[in-house]
User: Which sequence fits this backbone?
């Protein structure tokens, strides 16, 4: 029975340098080995982070349609970006036919004022003719 137990003990090796561990030692033969091993692990995790980032970028390139949605919305917003002729403010139109940034600006617009003036002129003319 004894040699079997010894062989089991032999299987426990320092994770850093590969030395046989003494009784009571779990992973490392000494403190410095555990420190260097953990430092290695830290470096390793940094490279895996980069690998993950690279794979994400690769995925984005391979499946651009999955990221198109947000780009489309941006493009639409860009297309509908207009400058209000009344106040000169840049705004995003809800409809492509929208010209002014707000109903206030529609009322203040020269076009609208012109329409009202022409209506008033027409009324005056009618008044003169009828009178
Ligand atoms: Zn060691
Ligand atoms: Zn405006």
Assistant:
């Amino acid at each position: 029975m004894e040699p079997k137990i010894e062989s089991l003990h032999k299987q426990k090796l320092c994770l850093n340098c590969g030395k046989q561990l003494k009784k009571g030692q779990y992973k490392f033969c000494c403190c410095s080995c555990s420190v260097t091993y953990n430092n290695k692990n830290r470096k390793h995790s940094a490279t895996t982070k980069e690998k993950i980032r690279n794979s994400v970028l690769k995925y984005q390139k391979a499946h651009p349609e999955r990221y198109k949605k947000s780009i489309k919305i941006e493009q639409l917003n860009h297309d509908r970006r207009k400058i209000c002729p009344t106040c000169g403010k840049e705004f995003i139109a809800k409809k492509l036919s929208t010209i002014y940034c707000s109903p206030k600006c529609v009322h203040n617009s020269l076009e609208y004022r012109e329409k009202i003036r022409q209506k008033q002129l027409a009324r005056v003319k009618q008044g003169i003719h009828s009178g």
The chain has two domains: 30-63, 65-130. The pocket of zinc ion (ligand 1) is lined by residues 14, 16-17, 19, 28-30, 33 (CB under 6 Å). The beta strands are 81-83, 90-92.
